[in-house]
Amino acid sequence: MKKYYFNFLLLFLGCSSYYQSYPKWYEKIADNKNQTIGYGKATTPKEATQLAINAIAQKLKCQIDSYITIKRESSSKNGNKEFVHSQIKITARTELNSLKVIKIEQIDDMWFVAVCYDNRTLFLKIINSVNPKNQNFTNPYLTRTELFKLLKEYFGFYPKAHIYTQNGQYYISIENQAFLVTQQEFLELFINSFDLNVDIKLKERIKNNEEFFITTQFKEAGFASLFVVSHTGSVVTLFKNIELIDASFTYPNKEKYNGLIAKIEDNMVQSKDLFVALLCKQKEDFGLFNQVSTELEKESFRFGQLIDLMDRCAFSTRIMTIYR
């Protein structure tokens, strides 16, 4: 009987040698439609904050630029210590703006942090942050998007804006303030646009791995080009600066190829691609844009530059939905 009691006592002491106290607020602040909360704990405020930001990034399905090594050493009330070594690698793609530390507290040797990400829609972030002047912004593509229609309804005019990319992520700049465009908000910039002199014919819905062709028709003389913008934001040139006079052009060449193949990522149910046909009065420099290839596209996030081209060329666009 004494033996069993002795073993139980050892087990009890072993389990109670370390106990971590947490702040009452830790992991208790709920996400909502306006905010996403991330939590982190570490031996320094900087490390705890980085872990909280990483937690937000995981929720938003993006990545943060960081590489940190964390060494934790915590003491319990009875003097026993716990050592934990961990390395966290966070590779770069997206820069999160609108981050704010809302809670920070130290208990024993550990720091606890809560970080808040402003999760409002892009429209709400813009109207609550800028007071633009009427600068007669008339970009023929952006002014047809739902976002800019809402901005005009609110401000009474289209605010002057510029779309650019940084670390493979798109931003809209208005009044020198940058607003992150999430992947869903980027897709909302896709529009079907029609020009009488430029036409695109393709299937609007197509199954994954299905082959297809794109037929374009240009009814005026000029230099014709065709681009595809993927749901991830990459921009690829299919053909460029072909001089035509009231002619049609099918891509790819049906005599040489079986067609393009619609592809969707393994973890997605469907995705969208945007096809853009341009007819320019003169040859344009498309050196910034990647040519279509079988290689993984790199540094091809040029949608802002493509929108600039639409400001001086006739264009039409078509959205293709790829599904399983």
Could you give the count of β-strands? 19
CATH architecture identity of the largest domain? Sandwich
> Which blocks of ≥5 consecutive residues have pLDDT under 50?
1-17, 63-78, 80-94
Helix content: 10-25%
Q: Tell me, briefly, the overall form.
A: elongated
- CATH top level class name of the largest domain: Mainly Beta
List the strand order in the largest sheet.
10-19-17-13-14-18
Structural class: alpha+beta
CATH topology of the largest domain, by name, is Immunoglobulin-like
Total number of domains: 3
Strand content: 35-45%
Give a description of the structure.
This protein has helices spanning 2-15, 45-59, 122-127, 146-155, 183-187, 303-310, and strands at residues 35-42, 66-75, 81-90, 99-107, 110-118, 162-166, 169-174, 177-180, 198-201, 205-207, 211-212, 214-218, 222-229, 235-244, 247-251, 260-261, 270-280, 290-291, 314-323. A hairpin with a 2-residue loop joins strand 7 and strand 8. The radius of gyration is 27 Å and the shape is elongated. With 324 residues, the protein is α+β, with helices and mostly antiparallel strands. The protein has three domains: 27-118, Roll (Endonuclease I-creI); 122-186, no CATH class; 191-323, Immunoglobulin-like (Sandwich), CATH 2.60.40. The strands form six sheets. A six-stranded mixed beta sheet has the order 10-19-17-13-14-18, with helices on one face.
